[in-house]
Amino acid sequence: MTTLALQRAEAPASASFGDQPFRTATGGLIDRNRPRDFTFDGRRLTGCHGDTLASALLANGVRLVGRSFKYHRPRGILSAGSEEPNALVELRSGARREPNTRATMAELYEGLEATSQNRWPSLAVDVLSVNALLSPVFAAGFYYKTFMWPASLWEKLYEPMIRRAAGLGRAADAPDPDTYDHAHAHCDVLVIGGGPAGLSAALAAGRSGARVILVDEDFATGGRLLAERREIGGTSGAEWAARALAELESLPEVRILPRTTLFGVYDHGAYGAVERVSDHLAVPAAYAPRQRLWRIVARRAVLAAGAIERPHVFGGNDRPGVMLAGAVRTYLNRYGVLPGRRLAVFTSSDDGWRTAADILAAGGGLAAVIDTRTTVPPALRRMAEAAGARVVTGGYVAGTKGHLGLSAIQVVDGYNSTETIPCDGLAMANGWNPIVHLDSHLSRRPVWNEAIHAFVPGTLPSGMQAAGAAAGRFTLAECLETGARIGAEAATDCGFTASAAAAPQTDPETVDHTPLWRVPKPKGKAFVDFQNDVAASDVELAHREGFRAVELLKRYTTLGMATDQGKTSNLAGLSIMAELTGKDIPSVGTTVFRPPFTPVAIGAFAGHHRGKDFRATRHVPSHAWAEENGAVFVETGLWLRPAYFPRAGETDWLDTVVREVETVRARVGICDVSTLGKIDIQGRDALAFIERVCANPFATLAIGSARYAVLLREDGLIMDDGTIARMGETHYVMTASTANAARVMQHLEFCRQWLWPELDVQLASVSEQWAQYAVAGPRARDTLRRIIDPGFDLSNEAFPFLACTDVTVGGGIPARLFRISFSGELAYELAVPAAYGDAAWRAIMQAGLPYGITAYGSEALSVMRIEKGHAAGPEINGLTTARDIGLDGMLATNKDYIGRLMKERPALVDPNRPVLVGFRPVDPSARLRAGAHFLSLDAAPSLEADEGVMTSVAYSPILKSWIGIGLIRRGPERHGERVRAYDPVRGADTEVEICSPVFVDAKEEKPRV
Amino acid sequence: MSEAMTSLWQPRGAWEGVARIGRSGADAGPAGVRLTLREGFGLATLIVAEGKEADLQTALADRFGPSLPEAGTAILKGETGLVWSAPGQWLAVAPSPRDLRDLPETLRGIASVTEQSDSRALVRISGPQARAMLAKGVAIDLHPRAFGPGRVAVTSIAHIGVQFWQRDAGPTYDLTVARSFAGSLWRWLEHAAAEFGYEVAASTKDLIAIG
Q1: Other C-beta atoms lying within 10 Å of the C-beta of residue A643
Q2: Which of A182, B13, B39, B154 is 20 to 30 A from A685, alpha carbon to alpha carbon?
Q3: Are the beta carbons of A809 and A816 closer than 8 angstroms?
Q4: Closest alpha carbon within chain A to B157
Q5: Class of residue A243 by CB neighbours under 10 A (exposed 0-12, middle 13-18, buried 19+)
Q6: Which residues of chain A have pLDDT under 50?
Q7: pLDDT given at position A127
Q8: What pLDDT does residue A502 have?
Q9: Can you tell me the distance from the alpha carbon of A963 to that of A863, in angstroms, rounded to the nearest whole number?
Q10: In this predicted complex, what is the ipTM?
């Protein structure tokens, strides 16, 4: 301690640097030749390039920065880093307004606009500070106890009221105009933190040729080296950091990410980090992202995140002007700012004396040094007293005075007598807590180290080692030594030849420390958690009321639950609970730290995925034509499908759909069915494979024929339906429904790879290769005759219903033709290579022109399949069996297949199960709704009376009435019976008659002509 | 079929209506990323028949070289190549679909061949920032020590399945995506490349094979 030099400043603080009255005349790492104008609450101020908003405010003498969360107490700047709980502001304006920004992290830029938050009407006069007078009422648990009754008032009155009174900043109410980026990075060694330990680690690893990424949350790399007056190898710490950085930048495999916060540690060496690419600019450069979210995968990580200083807990410790001692040194040494004219130091550690020395060196006035320890080296005492400072040992600061900022401290000395010492700033030095957040993210707990009175990393995540202050090695010499050693070890672990260079000599230092967890007799409210306004008295209350377990303490008092995650408060809260319960601190335990380490904007997580890019959109091959022709689209999974194609004069969607259906039934229509899954099945055992996955028989399927196919799940319920066409001896093409396309492919691959690897079968998805169009209606053949290349016989005899073949179109383009019908009309599906999809569509529209062709969309498709009683998604819904939808007659009886046995379970063959039938309204003008439940005519609605559900409805242009299909108990036995379609959600109760589900062409003649 | 009808049958490129030719994004200095839209190429999925790997290797030796590419690798010669896609499964790549037309017959009984020339959109990515841009989307390590020329990845970008392979140390990548996703993938490409500045060019060989 005696080695600490209490030298006088060479250059005393000038009365003013420019118009920044608290800026020192010289010193600091700011650029005094690059002034930066900014505003705070509309007031025009000037700082320097290299400032943070916090340092610039202090340079201008602004101490009052915000109002507290609950009591609206005046608050200033506590820290100089990411742990800041008080100095939260709204940054920027309009669409870029960004609430709850820590002034200590906001890099000053020209034109920066900052606004204090959580106050009304102004920062100096805040009406809601009346809450502070009522603070005895607003103690922990107040809301829980007070707003219990009547419960009905909670949503309407209490919650809105509390939210208005509390809460922090306001989010922007316009869409964010900036873009956010994602990126992945991989490395051998990830170094977290750019202080002396981190730089040493990166150098040791980087020099070996290992791929190194160094992330540092600061915009200037160097950590505490930038904030302390230290020497390394005869040069200043800041200079050493600059040289280290320059060397790292010269190494080709080293990537340095400044302004980047490593916010989360995840499994398997994955880390999350957010890079504030453009936060230091008013507006991002053209095309530059505002922020970038990094997913980093590292084989080894060096945790060199440093430590966070602990405040003292005493009365009025939240008054603007009370600051962490390390922050005071940062403002003095890095920013050339005096945090006050006459500063006092409250210390339980040697750091306090270092702070006193730095205050004097910067030309500041030293009002007092109060050390809670009884013995102080006489030399230090003499030098402080020589500077005019009052020195109190074995005493403490009990309280503070001042209206909107500190004007005096009330000091209790070792003999219990109180004196008031005027000062406008107070530095608190109560020791440091290693940043154990990141190493705790994977549910690990830190362990208590009695020697340094702090939690240190326990078992670290795999591949991670801690160095320097993050490991509780607080001296500069230890930081350099452990950093280099662990950096070299990490690179060696990755197979590189690395060694730690001998740590350079540093100036001597001591870090003796005897923490004082709270002062014995505080005068006034002694805050533990500044951001959530939790005082020592709240911890006492929690103790009295039985909320003593650490997780209960946290939730009852909200201690550590603010956006700062209790970085400056957790240990104080634990230590007070330890004292109250008579336990030691490790027995009280810690709460769990979770990602993110500091708040991360949702925009950074969203990245590119906003608006229409929230998820991908798939376009059908005819999309361009559909767009040109005014189609109305519907989202079907990722697909954007044309729902219908309105023509001039059609004002209602139903007009259009009716016209499309009538045209198909009378003439011809074309529909894009490319969204169906299409799977090529080849191989010697292709047929055997199909027989095992399909419930209906295929052994008799001839080359050139197609057949309807039903797939069951292992549990006997229907998985999907489609068609299988035999294109060659060992070549089949299966279709699956749009919604189940991927699932069916996955199922088939599972069967192939896992159930029957002995079968020679090859599966390839060709869904994207072929554009496939249904051409349906009495003139479908006439239309296709003009499309298929000459020489192919399309007659009913040559190419009958359920035929399939390879053809060519457009003069030699390979195509596939299937005579299958979903509409119940004479219909074909033509598949062409997807690049010709657009051309084929246009050609068919032209070919069909003489026959009055229409394009039809998914709505008309649906109407026609309901008219035909074909089951689709609403019926094949994962709850139905083949029998339920009337397909049991089709199932094979002479082969084994997936689902065969399980479909025979008693509940699945219960004759009372609802089975598919059709429904017509008794009143032909009545509208039907899908989702209605069936009740007998006289039944009171109840679950017991429920007989089934209407699954699909449509307005049938043929029948000129609404029709429906649905599942009702013993349906096929009940044709002609009347029941009610009861729909309480939409207030409907409609009498319907049970009928065949096939409303059109019951003899199935039309598709066969 | 009339002449008028035949003239309708022009292929539509997978990037048509999606990508705009020319320089976009940051415009200071040369473009960091070059995106070349490929059209008219041939692709076919080859899946080896049970126990026929040696036969397949022999059958393809003249065309692609003596050995089948191992998992995660490709054998590339100009615009022709064999790209690993899955166990026992490769993607044959050729300048035109015509070049692959003989494969079903050549490989009968050895491998199943599925024509895929139209199933994917293909963009060639090069330029000094090609690797940095691609790293925004793919989670795999693209560093030359981990992924060099002849390497293949089947992965996803922005929740869209992609397959890409590195052609040269430039680096140049060929990136393929299912055709229906081309528009959405292109939106991501534009987003990812914007800060580097990018140049979109049509493929020099822009012929599309018919018939």
Answers
A1: 23
A2: B154
A3: no
A4: A616
A5: middle
A6: 1-16
A7: 74
A8: 87
A9: 9
A10: 0.95
**Which residue from B minimizes the CA distance to A756?**
B50
Helix (H) or strand (E) holding A746: helix A741-750
Interface subset of A 576-615, CB within 8 angstroms of B? 608-609, 612-613, 615
Rounded to 5°, the CA angle A327-A331-A332 comes to 115
How far apart are the CA of B149 and the nearest CA of chain A, in angstroms? 18
Asked whether the beta carbons of A620 and A770 are under 8 A apart, the reply is: no
Check residue A146 and give its pLDDT.
63
User: Residue B8: pLDDT band by 50, 70, 90 thresholds?
Assistant: confident
DSSP secondary structure of B37-82: EE-S-EEEEEEEPTT-HHHHHHHHHHHH-SSPPPTTBEEEETTEEE
Q: How many CB atoms lie within 10 A of CB A611?
A: 8
Q: What are the extents of the domains in chain B?
A: 18-39+118-210, 42-115
**Token output for A322:** 């009370």
Q: What is the per-residue pLDDT for A199?
A: 98
CB A763 to CB B116 under 8 A? Answer: no
What would the two tokens of residue A461 be? Answer: 């995540």
Token pair for residue B149? 């020329």
User: Could you tell me if B125 and B133 are in contact, meaning their C-beta atoms sit under 8 angstroms apart?
Assistant: yes
pLDDT digits (tens, 9 = 90+) for A380-409: 899 899 999 999 999 999 999 998 999 999
Domain covering B18-39+118-210 assigned CATH 3.30.1360.120 in the classification: yes
Look at residue A540 and give its three-state secondary structure. helix
Amino acid at A184: H
Residues in chain B, how many? 211
Contact: B49, A286; criterion CB under 8 Å: no
The pLDDT score that the predictor gives to residue A150 is 66
Sign of the Cα pseudo-torsion (B23, B26, B31, B36, in order):
negative
pTM for the predicted model, two decimal places: 0.93
Q: What pLDDT was estimated at residue A2? A: 37
- pLDDT tens-digit readout, A129-150: 777 776 766 677 766 666 666 6
Instruction: Assess contact for A739 and A676: CB atoms under 8 A.
Output: no
B118, B192, B197: residue with CB nearest A769: B118
- 3-state secondary structure string across A889-955: HHCCCCCCCCCCCHHHCHHHHCCCCEEEEEEEECCCCCCCCCCCEEECCCCCCCCCCCCEEEEEEEE
Q: Tell me if chain A has a CB within 8 Å of the CB of B119.
A: yes
- Give how far A684 is from chain B: nearest CA, Å: 8
Q: Quick one: CATH architecture of B42-115?
A: 2-Layer Sandwich (3.30)
Work out the burial of residue A422: count CB atoms within 10 Å of its CB; fewer than 13 is exposed, 13-18 middle, 19 or more buried: middle
Confidence grade of residue B178 (pLDDT, cut at 50, 70, 90): very high
Partners of residue A788 on adjacent β-strands: A809
DSSP alpha helices (H): ranges in A584-704?
585-588, 602-606, 623-628, 653-666, 686-693
What chain A residue is nearest to B9 in terms of C-alpha separation? A839
Alpha-helix runs per DSSP H in A427-569: 476-493, 536-544, 550-557
CA distance B71 to A957: 56
Supply the DSSP string of A153-200, one letter for each residue.
HIIIIIHHHHHHHS---PPPSS---S-EEEEEEEEEEEEE--SHHHHH
Predicted pLDDT at B6: 53
Q: Which of A798, A793, A826, A801 is nearest to A706 (CA)?
A: A801
Burial code (b: 16+ CB inside 10 Å, e: under 16) for A296-311 equals bbbbbbbbbbbbbbbb
Size (chain A), residues: 1009
Where does A756-844 show beta strands of DSSP type E? 762-765, 770-776, 804-809, 813-818, 827-833
Q: Which segments within A56-109 are labelled E, that is strand? A: 66-67, 74-75, 88-91, 98-102
Tell whether B47 lies on the interface with A, counting CB pairs under 8 A: yes
CA distance B86 to chain A (A): 11
